[in-house]
Amino acid sequence: MNTNLTNPKEMEIPSTLREMGRASRIAAKTLARATPEQKNLALRSAAAALRKSLPDLLAANARDVAAATASGLSPAMLDRLKLGAGGVEAMAVGLEAIAQLADPIGTVLAQWTRPNGMVIQRQRVPLGVIGIIYESRPNVTADAGALCLKSSNAVILRGGSESIHSSAAIHACLVEGLTKAGLPASAIQLVPTTDRAAVGFMLADMADYIDVIIPRGGKNLVARVQKEARVPVIGHLEGNCHLFVDRDADLEMAKRILINAKLRRTGICGAAETLLVDKAGVDRLLAPLVAALLDAGCEVRGDPAVCRVDSRVTAATEDDWFTEYLDAIIAVRVVDGVDAAVEHIERYGSQHTEAIVTGNAATAERFLQGVDSAIVLHNASTQFADGGEFGMGAEIGISTDKFHARGPVGVEQLTSYKYLVRGSGQIR
Amino acid sequence: MNTNLTNPKEMEIPSTLREMGRASRIAAKTLARATPEQKNLALRSAAAALRKSLPDLLAANARDVAAATASGLSPAMLDRLKLGAGGVEAMAVGLEAIAQLADPIGTVLAQWTRPNGMVIQRQRVPLGVIGIIYESRPNVTADAGALCLKSSNAVILRGGSESIHSSAAIHACLVEGLTKAGLPASAIQLVPTTDRAAVGFMLADMADYIDVIIPRGGKNLVARVQKEARVPVIGHLEGNCHLFVDRDADLEMAKRILINAKLRRTGICGAAETLLVDKAGVDRLLAPLVAALLDAGCEVRGDPAVCRVDSRVTAATEDDWFTEYLDAIIAVRVVDGVDAAVEHIERYGSQHTEAIVTGNAATAERFLQGVDSAIVLHNASTQFADGGEFGMGAEIGISTDKFHARGPVGVEQLTSYKYLVRGSGQIR
Question: Domain with A331 in it: what CATH number?
Answer without folding.
Answer: 3.40.309.10
